[in-house]
Amino acid sequence: xxxxxxxxxxxxxxxxxxxxxxxxxxxxxxxxxxxxxxxxxxxxxxxxxxxxxxxxxxxxxxxxxxxxxxxxxxxxxxxxxxxxxxxxxxxxxxxxxxxxxxxxxxxxxxxxxxxxxxxxxxxx
Length: 124
What we know:
The chain is mostly beta strands. 8% of the residues lie in helices and 65% in strands. 15% of the residues are buried.
């Protein structure tokens, strides 16, 4: 299929910060990390079919509110187009740790609807 698609993802730095406080060898440290939003624009044949801004709350409404306060919307990327679905990949994470929520975000070109699936790595 020739979908004639144009996909833009613009990372927008927010004025808000995620603060990470810790102590090492008796010294207290405070690190501040910018949080982000991601502006997704999808055009088909030069007609805008999606123009929306996502923040971490869009994907974690039912999640632990504590994680939302300590995490940043690290990244949002285009992955592939397959079976009339645009697959995007996103990561929300606590800075400087392995604590993250990764997920696939699909946009169905037939129904014009989004779907989220958590990315669960199989430990073999």
